[in-house]
């Protein structure tokens, strides 16, 4: 998983490839719960590029996209948002897989 480094990089990723942004933070206990299985999800869903977005570093991007809880996911394809799994609730591996599976329907 790559880490978002700039607003410009986010725009480029959104417009050029299928991408799932994971909004997270180091201090978030629910975010730590999903970390162990993220590499497995990246491998299983290799058609998508996964990008870590530090909520504290990019709070303006969170606000612009109505992401007020973490961990949260936004998916983009061809410059358009195609899915969102945004809430303050803890997420299970199964819930995240369900979200990703629905993106291609």
UniProtKB/TrEMBL annotation:
Organism from which the protein derives: Halobacillus trueperi
The protein's name in its UniProt record: Thioredoxin
Domain of life: Bacteria
Domain Thioredoxin: 1-105
InterPro entries associated with the record: Thioredoxin-like_sf, Thioredoxin_domain, Thioredoxin_H-type-like
């Amino acid at each position: 998983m790559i880490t978002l480094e700039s607003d410009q990089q986010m725009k480029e990723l959104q417009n050029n490839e299928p991408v799932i942004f994971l909004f997270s933070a180091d201090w978030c206990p629910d975010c730590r719960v999903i970390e162990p299985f993220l590499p497995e999800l990246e491998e299983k869903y290799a058609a998508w590029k996964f990008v870590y977005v530090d909520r504290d570093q990019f709070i303006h991007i969170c606000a612009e996209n109505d992401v007020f809880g973490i961990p949260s996911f936004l998916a983009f394809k061809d410059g358009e948002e195609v899915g969102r799994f945004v809430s303050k609730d803890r997420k299970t591996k199964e819930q995240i897989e369900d979200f990703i599976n629905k993106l291609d329907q």
